[in-house]
Design brief:
mainly alpha; 5 helices; elongated
Length: 123
């Protein structure tokens, strides 16, 4: 067998067995697979990634292979952080607005007492 044929055949056979749910009752008897068979499916993904990378390694553009995935993850992380920053900014603005409302509606002694209680609770 050359290249990835052995792994490809194993993946095809696994897919057939999984589709028919053949022999899966043996796995479900094990504690690890009692609730689900995610570990088997994850293992299948790992073998598929191995095949994909091996095939990519035979091409001249191998050094740039996978960079789309890295760039996608990088952009998703930046978008997530940006979203988190926006939420924090919104909460900060709401807190400031509430602080101003509390300050203008409470008599000064109560406002000062609340600040003291809050600051003491932080320590």
């Amino acid at each position: 067998m050359c290249d990835t044929q052995l792994f490809d055949r194993a993946l095809q056979q696994y897919d057939k067995l999984r589709k028919r749910e053949a022999f899966l009752e043996q796995f479900r008897k094990e504690t690890m697979f009692k609730d689900n068979l995610e570990e088997l499916d994850h293992s299948r993904e790992v073998v598929q990634e191995l095949v994909d990378e091996y095939q990519a390694a035979t091409r001249p553009d191998y050094l740039s292979w996978g960079m789309d995935q890295v760039n996608h993850l990088y952009l998703a992380t930046i978008q997530s952080v940006s979203s988190d920053i926006q939420v924090i900014q919104n909460l900060s603005a709401e807190y400031t607005a509430l602080s101003l409302q509390v300050h203008t509606h409470l008599p000064t002694p109560i406002y000062v007492q609340l600040i003291l209680i809050f600051s003491c609770s932080l320590h």
